Task: structure prediction
Amino acid sequence: MQIDDECVADVSKPVQQEAVSRFKYGGGQFEVSSKGVFFFGTDKDGNEQKPRWICAPLYVIAKTRDERSSEWGRLLEWKDDDDQIHQWAMPLDNLEGDGAEVRRELANRGLHISPNQTERALLSAYIKVANIKARALCVQRLGWHGNVFITPAGAIGKSDEIMVFQNTQSVEPAFSTSGSIAEWRNSVAALAQGNSRLMFATSIAFAGALAEIANEDSGGFHLRGMSSSGKSTALTMAASVWGKPVKYICLWRSTLNGMEGLAALHNDGLLILDEIGQVDPTVAGDTAYLLANGQGKTRASRNGVAKPAQKWRLIFLSSGEEPLSAIMARAGKKSTAGQEIRLADIEADAGRDMGIFEALHGRSSPAEFAKEIKDRTSQYYGATGQAWLEQLTANRDQLHRDVNDRINLFIRQVVPNGSAGQVERVARRFALVAVAGELATECGLTGWNTGDATTAAKTCFISWLENFGGNGNREERAILAQVRSFFETHGASRFEDIRVTDEQRVPHRAGFFRTTSDNIREFIVLPEVFRNEICQDKDEKLVKKVLIKAGILNPAENGQPSQNIRLPTFGSVKAYVLKYQSE
Result:
């Protein structure tokens, strides 16, 4: 796929309205022209009254509705004082009050409206009864709708009818554009070369829109490192693909409901969350699950009927000084393997004594380099993301097979033999990022060399794998660590010698111990201790399976995890025989 340097997606195609249009209403008529919207009425004797000026030129482009022919509204268009064109898919039920909500929104976006109450009331009537036959499909979700990609500014791709975004969230999308593709490529992307974390973060920005084509799930990446290590610089570079970084980057400090709204606004795209340390520790794990699982809560509408839950597919990029597990620990919670693989933790420090940086491109210090990236990304942003969507929509059909073949090749190259399914699952996400970066390079968007994005993704994957603990199953390692902690804490102090007949007075007895003929000590753990202290919050069946596999739990001859053992003072008891030796 190749594009021209100055190619920017034209997602806003305003309707040119120069001619005067008129339609009757209530014994008079509305007239719309370049001078504004007027109402020409008559008095009770039929005499023509002075024209009433309602507002600056405001055009009703189409009647909007959703896929179910519900949620009807109007597509409105106007210009502000800077001659910038605005479009708004206005829900029609907003006019079923006094219309103040509609007037506030129009005024907030630069439309001049009459201050007189009579004319202000006529504005609602004008929007309602405007004689327009055109129809537009109104969607409440950005991203892919068939072969069309919906952005806040309009639709990219071919469609049989007008498609527009109706924002039902309290947060405005932060997509914006400044400068050209060539300027971003030469001034911003060029500085990422030679820096694995910067190239990886930038490639992540392209991956969100590719995930649906590749049929990949949502998921996140977390850049973890000390303050001033350059994490925010990586986030800034990624954000500049889609908009002005200072507005595009969000914070972890949000409620679960608020995070749902943010996720929905970044569907099929990139959500950037800075400072994980600011999230409420009690909901940190739930937030990671929420974002990666792609669906919010089901809620009731005003009439009590269940509303469809918000859904999304996205890639999210996070940063902070601590990993998710440390944040959850503040609230006395343990992170699960499921949470940790949904938010892959990557060490931000690249190991060159320059924080996240590996190549400064001639700058004297990491601080100077970071400042230059900040300055450049505040000048050039957004055009590359729009062009990327143009390329995806134009080549969607041929991309599906190609992308999946590339993903599978990446996995074969980086996943060690015998790795658990959790490792391969995360590797697919890294692979998606690598492929997205390579495709963007092939489109002429990054200026990088072929293979650069893949190398950066492999470097970051190795960092994640080392932090994750190798190629084994994280849940199995957590169980083994839990058992090891139990015996390292208590040793034999809570176990009685099974051979002793006198009372031993062992406090908080956990069971008994015995020594086998080959001089191996076996711990006979009582059932409730096994359940409450060995298993703790882990699934009991899984713990037994893992311990048997590791050769720690000695099952009965019939294969059952517990054995019938005669114990002093207890008689015959079903207990668990563990062979544990400190490493």
